[in-house]
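Let's practice the habit of predicting before peeking. Look at the sequence and jot down your guess about where helices and strands might fall. Then scroll down.
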Amino acid sequence: MVNALRIHPKDTVAVALADLAPGTWVEIEGGLEPPVVTVQAIPFGHKVAIAPIKKGEHVIKYGASIGVAVKDIAPGEHVHTHNLTSVRGRAQ
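Done guessing? Here is the structure:
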């Protein structure tokens, strides 16, 4: 059953459609290869990494950057302010 939404095929995160407990398979429309399992709780509406994201790399949602990883983020991890800094509205 689908429990997360990937908005664009290039996205490195998906949005939880329900609270996801640690150890939950992330199920998106069309599936994920390789499969992703949550490593921590992901609250409803929050982002979960569906691909490895290295420190300094852009986090992709909507097919565009929503910020930069401040540390390595593994698939299945919660992506939020503790590991992502926004670049929107900032001079480059």
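How did you do? Strands lie at 4-5, 13-16, 47-49, 58-61, 64-69, 78-79, 84-85.
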